[in-house]
Specification:
Cofactor: Ca(2+)
Family: Belongs to the glycosyl hydrolase 13 family.
Keywords: Carbohydrate metabolism, Glycosidase, Hydrolase, Metal-binding
Shape: elongated
CATH topology of the largest domain: TIM Barrel
Structural class: alpha/beta
Protein name: Alpha-amylase
Largest sheet: 8 strands, parallel, barrel
Strand order of the largest sheet: 1-2-5-13-14-15-16-17
GO molecular function, one term: hydrolase activity, hydrolyzing O-glycosyl compounds
Length: 512
């Protein structure tokens, strides 16, 4: 049977988190991102997770301090028309450019809470223990809570829903006495935190996270957010949604929301949740409850990267132990950094800079997982924790190597604690394959089999970090090297696409 009967190999996909926490608040992010989309696609980015572009508390807010789901930078609210990222018009243009270049957009949906209310309302509440929200630590009393959302700048366009105290389950501030605490709002006997099992059990019941916590048991809240999902998918071309803080809001609602989107727009949407917890067991149970129509960011893998990067010649063979990508690779979005792993954020798992090339090799060049590249590693970081692009500016080459060569059967050489390697054998339509070797100690060498079909070929490191050449023997083996605390990616020097590794990726996104 000839090759014409063979099915084409599915192209490797890579997503990028298209922002970092300290992107300048100059309302030009959509414009900058749009200009760089063609180049991102050329270097191997297929989908971009964009920041939460709904109106925040101010034009400085990153969107997690969300005010209005239905304002994408269109209305004069909270002292601004544009969001931190830009105007709705610029957002729509950026999304259309992405669509024209075959790049999908994943929206960052912040559905757990609202902030920066328009007015206060009096409601009955009790204080709860911040470390166990099932325990009441005060009697019932009236508080003045910032829970009145009128959205006056929008004047009912897209949604006439206004929010009041009974649409929320809790707040963290009493304006009557200026006290900060966690208050559970009371009402009818059924009102309270989400039912046990419907949110994470951390802190007794982790329904409350921040701000004014939405009560998805209220039918008006349920219907308004369901309507928003349909609305945003018709306003801008989307391929998926990243859900913020899924530990904290109703799993039952989220299952309904996903079914609603699939039923309305057809299957094929990508959904991923931020379930940031170093517990594989809890993640697996969550995926079971979501019927595996959902992905999660592999937080345990990030913690492993962090531990190994800060250890002295730690055991690389254990890098995937206890990770989601090992247990359920189809559901795992693998990553090295995001806005929740920066030093300034509460969810800390810092990864030392020297280890990032190794970490990106481990997520981009292996068969398992759906890798996510971080904007701050690609373009550098601004603000208090400013830093240049990671991997010595070579991260685009890792992305391109994935797109061109990381295909086919995988053979692991995890036989030495501080030096590991693997081979991708290629496929009939991506025939070149690659060999990867890395060390977190001294320079390393791995004798690895790439296949007798490559006998006599000369392989070199696409990164250019290792200057030697490897001639593949008649038995299909080669001796592949890497430098001290480094990684090398070996490919036939005459492989299709090798000339592209001499090109320069434009990291100067802020110079446009």
């Amino acid at each position: 049977m000839g090759d014409h009967t063979q099915q084409p190999t599915q192209e490797n996909m890579t997503m990028m988190q298209g922002f970092e926490w300290y992107v300048p608040a100059d309302q030009k992010h959509w414009v900058r991102l749009e200009k760089h989309i063609p180049e991102l696609k050329r270097w191997g980015i297929d989908n971009i997770w964009v920041p939460p572009g709904c109106k925040a508390s101010s034009n400085q807010g990153n969107g997690y301090d969300i005010y209005d789901l239905y304002d994408l930078g269109e209305f004069d609210q909270k002292g601004t028309i544009a969001t931190k990222w830009g105007t709705k018009q610029e957002l729509v243009k950026m999304c259309q450019t992405a669509n024209d270049h075959g790049v999908g957009i994943y929206w960052d949906a912040v559905l757990n809470h609202k902030m920066s209310a328009d007015h206060k309302e009096v409601c009955l509440a009790v204080e709860v223990d911040p470390n166990d929200r099932t325990k009441t630590i005060s009697g019932k009393y009236e508080i003045e809570a910032w829970v009145g959302f009128d959205f006056p700048g929008r004047q009912g366009k897209y949604s006439e829903m206004k929010y009041h105290w009974y649409h929320f389950s809790g707040v963290d501030y009493n304006a009557a006495n200026h006290k900060k605490a966690i208050y559970k709002i009371l009402g009818d006997p059924s009102k309270g935190w989400a039912d046990a099992g419907d949110v994470d059990s951390e802190k007794g019941n982790y329904d409350f996270l921040m701000g004014a916590d939405l009560d998805f048991d209220h039918p008006e809240v349920h219907d308004d957010v369901m309507n928003w999902g349909k609305w945003i998918a018709t306003e801008i071309p989307l391929k998926g949604i990243r859900f913020d803080a899924v530990k904290h809001f109703s799993e039952e609602f989220l299952r309904k929301f996903i079914r609603h989107m699939d039923n309305t727009f057809g299957s094929g949407w990508f959904f991923v949740g931020e379930f940031w917890k170093d517990s594989l067991d809890d993640m697996k149970k969550y995926l079971d409850r979501m019927s595996h129509k959902f992905s999660l960011f592999d937080a345990p893998l990030v913690y492993n990267f962090s531990e190994i990067s800060r250890g002295n010649s730690a055991d690389l063979r254990q890098v995937f132990d206890g990770t989601l990508v090992q247990a359920d690779p189809v559901a795992a979005v693998t990553l090295v950094m995001n806005h929740d792993t920066q030093p300034s954020q509460a969810l800390q798992a810092p990864i030392e800079g020297w280890f990032k090339p190794l970490a990106y090799s481990l997520i981009l060049l292996r068969e398992q997982g759906y890798p996510c590249v971080f904007y701050g590693d690609l373009y550098g970081m601004k603000g208090e924790y400013s830093s240049p692009p990671s991997c010595g500016g070579a991260l685009p080459k890792f992305m391109l190597a994935r797109k061109l060569y990381a295909y086919g059967k995988q053979a692991d050489y995890f036989d030495y604690a501080t030096c590991i390697g693997w081979v991708r054998y290629g496929t009939w339509d991506y025939p070149y394959g690659c060999a990867v070797v890395m060390s977190n100690a001294g320079s390393g060498t791995k004798r690895m089999h790439v296949g007798e079909m490559h006998a006599g070929e000369v392989w070199t490191d696409v990164l250019g970090w290792e200057q030697s050449q490897v001639v593949i023997g008649s038995d299909g083996f080669g001796e592949f090297r890497c430098g001290q605390t480094s990684v090398s990616i070996w490919v036939n020097k005459d492989a299709k696409g090798r000339e592209r590794f001499t090109e320069e990726f434009d990291v100067n996104i802020y110079d446009d």
